[in-house]
Design goal:
Blueprint lengths: L7 H11 L4 H15 L13 E5 L5 E7 L17
Antiparallel strand pairs: 1-2
Length: 84
């Protein structure tokens, strides 16, 4: 399959043809995404600190939490996904 390179305007036009939003909404969405993108950690950056709930084997909250910064120096695996 050939690698199809689209310009940003071609991509926008194509997206709007199949979308239920108008051009102004599309532009607002892209601006919001661009503003969020500058906050995304880059390879080699430290992970942002966060705190999460500890779950029991039945995936119920235990009332305990774990803070990433408390695990500094220890191996940590993060798995993101939707398991619905």
């Amino acid at each position: 399959m050939a690698d199809v390179q689209m310009t940003p305007e071609e991509r926008k036009k194509s997206w709007l043809e199949i979308s239920v939003i108008d051009e102004a909404q599309f532009d607002a969405m892209r601006e919001e995404q661009a503003a969020r993108q500058v906050k995304v950690p880059q390879p080699g950056d430290d992970a942002p600190d966060f705190e999460i709930d500890v779950l029991d084997p039945d995936r119920q909250r235990t009332g305990e939490t774990v803070k990433l910064s408390n695990l500094r120096g220890k191996p940590v695996a993060l798995m993101f996904g939707s398991y619905t």
